[in-house]
């Protein structure tokens, strides 16, 4: 195997990005973990977020009444001091609590999300009962796109950057035909035993024609249910993908 994967990059699901879908699954995983919720709720300093405003109001009421009764500027200074101190204490505790909560979240999420290398075993088009007919239909639908694509022997346009070419799969026009493909793949995880997963990914029709058994690349999944939560990983840097390949090979 190479260290960058051999399959085409899928498109985000309609109406949402793949990252948001997976992050939503991760948050559902967190909400289903009572221990994590208890730790987040028990972060030290939570009580001061409520007490600081309450104590400030209790002190402000008599100070305000004294200022109204005497008109002394001293009481105005006391009121200002109470507001400043209460604000500083509240902001400080919020920052501290948020930092501690992020640590708790990080410690639990590290054990919830797994990575591995998936190898395509079979390809199926859910909208068609015959995969050969579906592939033929896809081929006819993409004739125009293939005719319009640059020829392999054509000179590259020096005015077009590599970054633009790399982002074409992510920023496809709305009229580009797409298709959902059901992939069955064998997954070699970084940790744990291998498993077989079935997932549905959306591809540009041209890319769907390039899919074939034996292609491979990085995947992510939730450890509690890897067979049903596996998805193609598209947001990792090349260095991270290399590490996944090496770790999966050593596992």
UniProtKB/TrEMBL annotation:
The chain crosses the membrane at residues 47-67, 73-92. Keywords: Membrane, Transmembrane, Transmembrane helix. Residues 150-168 have a biased composition (Basic and acidic residues). Residues 131-172 are annotated as: Disordered. Residues 136-149 have a biased composition (Low complexity). This is Uncharacterized protein. It comes from Kocuria subflava.
């Amino acid at each position: 195997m190479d260290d960058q994967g051999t399959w085409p990059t899928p498109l985000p699901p309609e109406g949402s990005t793949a990252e948001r879908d997976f992050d939503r699954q991760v948050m559902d995983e967190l909400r289903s973990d009572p221990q994590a919720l208890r730790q987040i709720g028990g972060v030290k300093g939570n009580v001061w977020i409520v007490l600081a405003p309450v104590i400030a109001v209790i002190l402000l009421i008599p100070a305000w009444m004294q200022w109204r009764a005497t008109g002394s500027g001293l009481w105005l200074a006391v009121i200002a001091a109470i507001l400043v101190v209460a604000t500083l204490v509240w902001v400080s505790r919020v920052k501290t609590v948020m930092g501690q909560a992020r640590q708790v979240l990080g410690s639990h999420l590290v054990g919830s999300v797994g990575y591995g290398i998936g190898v395509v075993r079979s390809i199926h088009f859910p909208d068609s009962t015959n995969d050969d007919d579906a592939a033929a239909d896809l081929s006819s639908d993409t004739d125009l796109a293939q005719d319009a694509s640059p020829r392999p022997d054509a000179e590259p346009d020096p005015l077009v950057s590599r970054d633009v070419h790399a982002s074409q799969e992510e920023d496809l026009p709305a009229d580009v035909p797409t298709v959902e493909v059901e992939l069955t793949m064998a997954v070699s995880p970084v940790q744990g035993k291998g498993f077989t997963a079935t997932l549905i990914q959306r591809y540009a029709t041209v890319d769907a024609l390039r899919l074939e058994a034996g292609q491979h690349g990085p995947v992510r999944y939730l450890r509690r249910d890897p067979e049903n939560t596996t998805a193609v990983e598209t947001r990792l840097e090349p260095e991270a993908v290399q590490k996944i390949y090496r770790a999966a090979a050593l596992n």
